[in-house]
Amino acid sequence: MGTVEQPAVVRAQGIVKRFGPTVALDHARLAVRPGEAHALVGRNGAGKSTLVSVLTGMERPDEGEVTFGDEPAPGYGDTAAWQRRVACVYQKSMVVPDLTVAENLYLNRFPGARHIRWRALREDARALLAEYGVEVDPQTRAKDLSVEQRQFVEIARALSFGARLIILDEPTAQLDAGGIDRLFAKLLELRRQGVAFLFISHHLQEVYELCDTVTVFRDARHVLTAPVADLPKEELVAAMTGDDGTAPGGDSRAAVRAPVARKAADPGGEPVLRTEGLTLEGEFDPLDLVVRPGEVLGLAGATASGNTAVGETLVGLRKPAGGQLSVRGRPVRPGSVPHAIDAGIGYVPEDRHDQGLVLGRSVAENATLTVTDQLGPYGTVLPSRTRAFAQRMITSLDIKTSGPSQPVSGLSGGNQQKVVIARALAREPSLLVAIRPTAGVDVKSKDALLGVVRDVAAAGSGAVIVSDELDDLRVCDRILAFFHGRVVAEFDSGWNDRQLVAAMEGMTEPGTNGTAGDTEDRTEGRQS
Ligand SMILES: Nc1ncnc2c1ncn2[C@@H]1O[C@H](COP(=O)(O)OP(=O)(O)OP(=O)(O)O)[C@@H](O)[C@H]1O
């Protein structure tokens, strides 16, 4: 860092933003320096996404000022001018799926041009990608890109507009370990060229690995900005939660550890779930699973390892090519979601937008979608009962909302995820299947949600957690690690991070409690 202070690439001061009665930002502030990797963290609903909307010109603040390099922000509506200053790479793709990479890169960039010279455009795209070291064929359709490639294309696109500030919203959420390493390497390279990053993440470990400065928002306000190196993780979590560190859950270890009250699975009880030879061609090999009452089983695996496909088959979203599945001894018709629900399988999907919620409907309606038959006599739904039911869920899952009647579209991402979980629990399922249940959920809510999964098991049901997140897997009694559609290792509690990560990467070590040989011996994880 030079001796002369350079102006901040972006500075926001005194930002106030209200949505009806909700104050999303209350005199919030943030400044990012050139070349800096700056993390913005906070619990679900703290105001992070709203600030991003303000910084990218998508929302006009009610009060306050945004400057770029000490110059006032462009006028609202002048999209091109905003694009020259800042870009956000969202979790949801902003590129047009059916267009090629080249077309996406030059989208909206031909003001006044009557004829687009396609050949030249492809060449320009190739040059542009090469300039930023992005190895993607510009003629690939955007929908055929991996998440990693798409993020690189979006970053290259932003830089080509001239932006020197890039906002990354949970960029690692859908990447595997190799993808994360390559992304981090790319960001480091760009920072050396003076590009600054604002990094929004609930993965505090990544904040420590990638960022030099961190800003914490809590309840719509700025609470602290500090160099990452000077801030112990406990203090960071305390700033996010408002606890002084002495209260339970106020330290980071408490936030990620498994809840203590574990009821041992009943080894003799009738299984809540049994699969025999369940298989889906091209996704996973024949699989025999047993989940007993009180047990939480983890299906660990990286992207495309087969673990997600198993989870989706259990809940009826995918039709298996063969095999059987039963819940508490009762066969379940495979490939049917209604039958799975009827049989007592509750489902928490990974993508709450595609599979989870009716955004225009209220929190109460969404939380009770699967139990409308219990909310009034003779097929009627009593609003009072719906509200009371939803209120219980709001309290037990700590959902930040103005009340049961608030539309789900107005909730922050993490709080939407809690509504999805509330809905899955509403029917008191025999088996809860959760796919990456804590994606986008803040560190403290993560603890609460995983605690809820354990409670479901403690009450005599079973649960299956499908995830590559170590924190999700920590609450499991037993874990099967998937690689290329096969179970390659099985772990009882007591595994260490290195062993499990190695298994998910397809590197099982002989002599650990998670060898492929072990798996063969245990019928409950048998693969034929
Ligand atoms: N369009 C909207 N209408 C109504 N309320 C909104 C809207 N957008 C945001 N809010 C509210 O503003 C507050 C801040 O939400 P925001 O999405 O900025 O939080 P966040 O920190 O990004 O949370 P998360 O980590 O869960 O994504 C929340 O209480 C949210 O319900």
UniProtKB/TrEMBL annotation:
Q: Where is the ABC transporter domain?
A: 10-244, 267-509
Residues covered by region (Disordered) = 505-528
Source domain of life = Bacteria
This protein's UniProt keywords: ATP-binding, Nucleotide-binding, Repeat, Transport
InterPro entries, alphabetized: AAA+_ATPase, ABC_carbohydrate_import_ATPase, ABC_transporter-like_ATP-bd, ABC_transporter-like_CS, P-loop_NTPase
Which Pfam families does the protein's record reference? Answer: ABC_tran
Q: Which one of the record's GO molecular function terms can you name?
A: ATP hydrolysis activity
Q: Where is the composition biased (Basic and acidic residues)?
A: 519-528
Task: Tell me which positions the record assigns to the signal sequence.
Answer: none
The name under which this protein is listed is: ABC transporter related protein
Organism (species): Streptomyces violaceusniger (strain Tu 4113)
